[in-house]
Amino acid sequence: MRLYITAAAGLTKPNKAPQMQAARRGCRSVVLTGLLAGLLLFRAALLAVETGASLCPSAVGCPASGCWGWLYGGGSGGDATEEFMKQWTSHREASLLDPVVVEAAPDSLNGLMAEMDTILATYDRLDMEAVVLKIMAMLLKMDRKVKSSRIQALFNRQLASLGIPKSMHCLALRLAEEFSVNAEARSPVPLPQHAPRLTDTSRLHVAVVTDNILAAAVAVASAVSSSADPSSLVFHVVTDKKSYVPMHSWFALHPVSPAVVEVKGLHQFDWRDGDAIASVMRTIDEVQKSSLGYHQLYDGAAERELRRLEASKPSTFSPLNYLKIHLPEFFPELGRIILLDDDVVVRKDLAGLWEQDLDGNIMGAVGAHQPGEDGGICVERALGEHLNFSDPALSSLGLDGSHCVWSWGANIIDLHAWRGTNNRDSEFRLWKMASLPPALIAFDGRVQAIEPLWHLPGLGWRMPDSDLLQFSAVLHFSGPRKPWLEIAFPELRELWLRHLNVSDTFLRGCGVVE
User: Fold this and answer.
1) Distance from the Cα of residue 244 to its chain's centroid
2) How do strand 204-209 and strand 233-239 relate by DSSP bridges?
3) Distances (CA, A) of 451 to 231, 341, 472
4) Torsion angle defined by CA atoms of residues 166, 169, 174 and 177, in that order, rounded to the nearest 10 degrees
5) Which helix (H) or strand (E) holds 340?
6) CA distance 161 to 158
7) Which range in 2-11, 93-102, 117-126, 484-493 is most confidently predicted, on average pLDDT?
């Protein structure tokens, strides 16, 4: 028998009520935390649930049969566990919960425990079904918030990739101003004594179709610095009327001797063939019409949002992006040409790409093999991911949606073989808007696979393996993280920036380099 000394003796009987309340609060926290953790890590949850009694405060213990017994009306912890799992299994389709219930769910574990405290203060026993539904609703609500945040982050990054930095606006304006006041900026590009090289088929010709001055500058400079014989290089920079003046001014003031650069606007081409100009104008007209009706192609909300993002990209409806398919019209005197995208850095001599044997095909490109060849898989995506195969017109073209897709970026093109075909036009309704799909249709079966080292794409999406960076001849910043943007990967951006002169007054004055 335990005896207590009276107060007169200087000792008092312990008051158990506060300790019991603290114990109950501890039990509630342990059990509810165990339940939630059980959904995140099943085995850990079972352990927490089944050992709930041992986690109660040791000073006073838990009434009845531990925390589970107290919360669940006096039954055993095992019965409570079984009941919880039974209710969880019967309500496992959380996506079927009433949206009102999900919206009213607590936003955090603390909120859930506060609600459970309110229930326990009102009822003697915990309704296990209510617990399961509340936890499911809370997790579903959290999951939706996480997904929404991820989508918003992707959207924000997409918007960041669409913007043109103020430094690039500044550069274009400064160069245009220089063109008007400085005779050297207006000097011919190339100089008259170098003009015969433009049609000299013994030289290595490289085309860059772009309105981006900085990108063109880096693509050209990197190719020259990587060449064993720069004097053999002839660059053809094709741009639009808006960008012609600053583009001309840049290359007039920044020659890449001994290589030669030609800058030509679309308005300056001397079209000799009426059919050729008609074909070019038809492409431009299709691009403009498609830009108006693009959002009407799909009805689903998700598809509309994707289309809105795609249409917001400047390149989506830029005629320059589609005029690659008219290279034979641009260069009627040439028989072979290397086509570079503007967002590339050349790190190896392009002579090896120039000398590729195309085996009678129109183009050489990385990724132009078929699944299963040499046990490989598609380097890029399959044809069905670029073309609208739900259109009946595709069946008449005999295309196979499982075929691998080659990519733009660094391509060697046989213009003679190209001119021998008559399949450069295709309907935009078959395309998922980009410059590649029409070329996939036009050149199906006429593209020669070349070694992957000639083209490393996707540097605007991800960091590649270090070995790939070291051995690849052309680094392609395809993707939203362009090297001239702050959102680019810092390590990759450095590879691009090193081809800009940090002491150049135009670049420093506009904050392009520091």
Assistant:
1) 30
2) parallel
3) 26, 18, 10
4) -140
5) strand 336-340
6) 5
7) 484-493
CA-based end-to-end distance of the chain: 86
Q: Check residue 344 and report its DSSP letter.
A: E
Question: Which tokens go with 423?
Answer: 């399949």
According to the model, what pLDDT value does residue 150 have?
A: 73
At residue 135, the pLDDT reads 76
Give me the numbers of helices (H) and strands (E) for the chain, helices first please.
Answer: 20, 9
Closest CA to 447 of 478, 476, 421: 421
Residues 483 and 495: their CA atoms lie apart, in Å, by 9
Cβ contacts of residue 307 below 8 Å, gap of 6+? Answer: 294, 295, 297, 298
Instruction: Find tokens 């809370």 and name the residue.
Output: 138
CA distance 135 to 95: 13
Distance separating alpha carbons of residues 210 and 236, to the nearest angstrom: 11
**DSSP β-ladder status, 363-365 and 410-414:** antiparallel
For 208-242, the pLDDT digits (tens) are 999 999 999 999 999 999 999 999 999 999 999 99
Angle at 204 between CA 264 and CA 338, to 5 degrees: 70
Phi-psi region of 129 (alpha: psi -120 to 50; beta: other; left: phi over 0): alpha
Most confident of 197-211, 406-420, 426-440: 197-211
Question: Which has the higher per-residue pLDDT, 336 or 30?
Answer: 336
Q: CA-CA distance, 476 to 331, in Å (whole number)?
A: 24
Q: CA 18 → CA 14, 25, 261, distances in Å? A: 10, 11, 87
pTM of the prediction?
A: 0.68
Rounded to whole angstroms, how far apart are CA atoms 483 and 485? 5
Which one-letter amino acid corresponds to residue 212? N
Alpha-carbon distances of 203 from 189, 233, 333, rounded to whole Å: 17, 6, 13
**3-class secondary-structure state, position 317:** coil
The helix (run of H) or strand (run of E) holding residue 401 is none
**H or E element at residue 131:** helix 128-162
- What distance in Å separates the CA atoms of residue 201 and residue 332, rounded to the nearest whole number? 11
Instruction: Tell me how far apart the alpha carbons of residues 158 and 305 are, in angstroms, rounded to a whole number.
Output: 12
Beta bridge partner(s), residue 340: 208, 410
Torsion angle of C-alpha atoms 62, 63, 68, 71, degrees rounded to 10 = -120
Report percent pLDDT > 70 for the chain. 59
What is the rounded CA–CA span in Å between residue 227 and residue 347? 9
